[in-house]
Specification:
4 helices; 59% helix; mainly alpha; Non-ribosomal Peptide Synthetase Peptidyl Carrier Protein, Chain A
Length: 81
C-alpha cells in the first residue's frame, strides 16, 4: 500500500471520529492542540486503524500519535510486519 493511499484512508478515519472535514486535517496538524482530540478519541482512532488494517497496535504507542503523519507512520510500521 502506498503512503499516499494510507494517508487518505487514515485521514478519513480521523475526520469521521472527531467529526471534522478531512480538509481540516493536514499531515502535521496536532491532534490535541489543533483539533482538541482527547485520550478517548485518540484510542478510538487507534482501534479504528487496527480494525481497518487487521493489525494489533500496542496501546503504549498511543502517546506516539500526535499528528496524522504519526498515525500513518505507526500504521505502516504494523502493516508491514
Amino acid at each position: 500500500m502506498t503512503t499516499d493511499k494510507l494517508f487518505v484512508e487514515i485521514r478519513a478515519i480521523v475526520a469521521e471520529i472527531i467529526e471534522v472535514e478531512e480538509e481540516e486535517i493536514q499531515g502535521d496538524t496536532k491532534f490535541r492542540e489543533d483539533l482538541d482530540v482527547d485520550s478517548m478519541k485518540a484510542l478510538e482512532i487507534l482501534v479504528a486503524i487496527e480494525k481497518k488494517y487487521k493489525v494489533k497496535i500496542d496501546e503504549g504507542r498511543l502517546k506516539d500519535i500526535k499528528t496524522l503523519n504519526d498515525s500513518v507512520g505507526l500504521a505502516r510500521e504494523y502493516i508491514e510486519r
